[in-house]
# Entry
Amino acid sequence: MAAEFCDIKGGETIAIWGCGPVGQFAIKTAFLLGAERVIAIDTLPERLALARESGAETRDFMAEDIYERVMEFTRGRGADACIDAVGIEPETMASADSMLDRIKVATFMGTDRPHVLRQAIHCCRNFGVVSIVGVYGGFLDKIPFGSAINRGLTFRMAQTPVQHYMPRLLTLIEDGAIDPGFVITHTASLEEGPDLYKTFRAKEDGCIKVVMKPRGGRDGTGHPEEAPS
# Structure
């Protein structure tokens, strides 16, 4: 849905913030829909590596100025569409406004940390699309809406209606266009779930996506065993 919101016709440059499971699938889908270039933005090496395997050009937001890099990539034009696959959850303080967001949340002066959304707006070209699938929980502060209006940006956002997309996704999987298993880094039983959630939350052990089985574990190939029917 995140990529579909971008109205990709073919040949576009799409910038994606967040290379977790949602961002990884957005990268794959953007290419499937015809994007020429995808710029994937994160800071975790394992996530950036997985994005590169999908063909994206990666940028580490802790190591460089993302706005400058996007402008450099697009010769000052900006990305045709920007996908915010982060939302309320950014933990790393990568800029002055992200630090201010954190202070506001800690002192109950704000509910969200929307610096990724601000950056996506700034990096989008005139009359481009900002696609928002990262979840926000409350009132957002200091959003450059005047810039968005003056440059004619379109905002598209929603919680994904899974049942709407499932038939199309299953067809893509059956046709071999995409294998969603590429994003799974850990398999476990339900009993191991709490500990693995802590691992995922702390972004440790290269953990990107976990699959759990009620009576699972690993089979000889490292894949989860099928639970008995």
